[in-house]
């Protein structure tokens, strides 16, 4: 059945261009494609008639103005380690390299046990979907079976997911690594084969080549993955310039390139389907190279603060034409929520601007853009996702601010504009406000879905 969504819609068109449509209708076809966006309409029925949708050929879903509710595009989490979810909040005073050894690798190694993988991955998917994340770029672990299971679970739950098996054949602990280049290659191909079997068009779940980071891969493995991505057109995700000790380590390991970005570039891994997480300590030349190659950045402000990695200069990246989206980076980051991450992105940008350069400051509209359209660009999906323009897919959330147990207090005497409501949502909202979540036109999560 086709559906007409009616009420208030909020979505981003460009970086500082947020559109609030208080009385609009969006017509969604049976395959989840948006057929029309009718602004300033009286009713769902009036819009349906205007677009020649016969009475009885569609159902209607409305947002409720009395409950301060609105439709918003689904969020993109451009960087999340599904396997690290049990460790959210656990990082003490560590920084990246000792955090990996003391917290992360021991946890990830336990995913050889499929019961652990099933338990954790099921909960991560439920949790992220419940927070409005309709597309996630996941890192699993080094294990093939567990990684395949993550793909099965995402597909079953109806969450769009990039699924990456971590490649790590160098400089990694003996108890948690690819034993050699051939093992890494074989396991990578097995995961691609499995995902292609369960979703041949890679429409909902898609394999993503995942050299963990340059410091955990041999040059041979990096180059093989680069060639594989050229041959298959599959996307790539990895980490870059997160921490200064890491940057030095990469320089000392891979002397064939003159910069961290240069290592990936020389191995064929920098292209327009590459997602680079963090990018805290890039040089001007690396920024120019990444812009030229069309790669995107997953900005992970909660993680960068927790692991004291630094402050990514988001405006500096955007100014050079680099695509930027948001990543929770669970569990370097402590929250699986992209709304919370957008809040963190705004605050980190304020910290940067407090050092004397106001141009770093991000607005509410800008961080919500990063959470939606920016993320879609980084994932190479902006042609079909990110906002409510006709031709795109209905990946959306119904936000209700004045709901039972809401963390957002709306006072009846408040003179609130829609912009004010969006601001209150950004700073105080959470998954209790996510009433419904749709992916590809299908209802998949939300408080009204699970209750
Ligand atoms: N660099 C290499 N592996 C990781 C990881 O798991 N998390 C983060 N934040 N950085 C990394
Ligand atoms: Zn990460």
Describe this protein's structure:
37% of the residues lie in helices and 22% in strands. α3 runs parallel beside α4 and α4 packs parallel to α5. The chain has helices at 44-50, 96-109, 114-130, 144-157, 181-198, 219-232, 244-253, 260-266, 284-293, 301-306, 314-319, 338-353, 364-378, 418-428, 447-450, and strands at 2-14, 17-28, 34-38, 58-62, 69-73, 75-81, 133-139, 160-164, 166-167, 205-207, 210-211, 236-240, 274-278, 296-299, 323-326, 396-400, 434-439, 442-445. The protein contains 15 helices and 18 strands. The protein is globular and about 65 Å long. The relative contact order is 0.16. By secondary structure, the chain is an alpha/beta fold. β17 and β18 form a beta hairpin. Strands 3-2-1-4 form a four-stranded mixed beta sheet. Strands 5-16-17-18 form a four-stranded antiparallel beta sheet. A four-stranded parallel beta sheet has the order 6-7-8-10. The two termini are 23 Å apart. Bound molecules: guanine and zinc ion. Residues 79, 81, 239, 277, 329, 332 line the site of zinc ion. Zinc ion binds at residues 79, 81, 239, 277, 329, 332.
Beta fraction: 15-25%
Describe the sheet with the most strands.
4 strands, mixed
- Helical run tally: 15
What is the CA-CA span between the terminal residues? Answer: 23 Å
Range of helix content:
25-40%
């Amino acid at each position: 059945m086709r559906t007409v969504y009616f009420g208030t819609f909020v979505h981003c068109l460009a970086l500082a261009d947020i559109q609030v449509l208080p009385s609009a209708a969006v017509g969604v076809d049976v395959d989840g494609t948006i057929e029309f966006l009718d602004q300033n309409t009286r009713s769902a029925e009036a819009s349906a008639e205007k677009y020649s949708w016969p009475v009885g050929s569609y159902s209607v879903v409305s947002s409720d103005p009395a409950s301060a509710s609105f439709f918003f595009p689904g969020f993109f989490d451009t960087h999340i380690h599904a396997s690290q979810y049990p460790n959210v909040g656990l990082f003490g005073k560590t920084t990246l390299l000792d955090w990996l050894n003391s917290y992360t690798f021991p946890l990830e190694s336990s995913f050889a046990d499929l019961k652990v993988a099933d338990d954790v991955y099921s909960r991560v998917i439920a949790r992220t979907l419940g927070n409005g994340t309709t597309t996630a770029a996941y890192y699993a672990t080094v294990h093939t079976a567990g990684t395949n299971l993550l793909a099965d679970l995402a597909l079953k739950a109806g969450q769009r997911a990039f699924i990456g098996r971590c490649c790590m054949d160098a400089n990694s602990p003996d108890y948690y690594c690819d034993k050699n280049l051939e093992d890494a290659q074989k396991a990578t191909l097995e995961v691609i084969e499995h995902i292609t079997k369960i979703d041949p068009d890679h429409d909902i779940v898609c394999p993503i080549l995942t050299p963990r980071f340059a410091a955990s891969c041999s040059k041979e493995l990096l180059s093989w993955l680069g060639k594989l991505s050229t041959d298959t057109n599959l996307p790539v995700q990895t980490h870059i310039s997160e921490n200064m000790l890491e940057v030095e380590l990469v320089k000392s390991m891979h002397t064939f390139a003159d910069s961290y970005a240069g290592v990936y570039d020389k191995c064929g891994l920098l292209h327009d389907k590459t997602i680079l997480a963090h990018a805290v300590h890039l040089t001007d030349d690396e920024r120019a190279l990444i812009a030229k190659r069309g790669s995107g950045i997953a900005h992970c402000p909660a993680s960068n603060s927790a692991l004291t990695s630094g402050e990514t200069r988001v405006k500096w990246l955007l100014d050079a034409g680099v695509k930027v989206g948001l990543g929770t980076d669970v569990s370097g980051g402590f929250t699986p929520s992209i709304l919370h991450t957008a809040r963190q992105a705004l605050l980190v940008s304020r910290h940067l601007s407090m050092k004397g350069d106001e141009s770093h400051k991000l607005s509410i509209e800008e961080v919500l853009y990063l959470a939606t359209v920016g993320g879609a660009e980084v994932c190479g999906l902006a042609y079909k996702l990110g906002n409510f323009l006709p031709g795109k897919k209905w990946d959306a959330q119904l936000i209700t601010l004045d709901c039972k147990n809401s963390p957002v207090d709306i006072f009846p005497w408040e003179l609130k504009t829609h912009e004010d409501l969006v601001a209150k949502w950004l700073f105080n909202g959470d998954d209790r406000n996510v009433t419904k979540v749709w992916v590809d036109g299908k209802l998949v999560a939300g408080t009204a879905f699970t209750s």
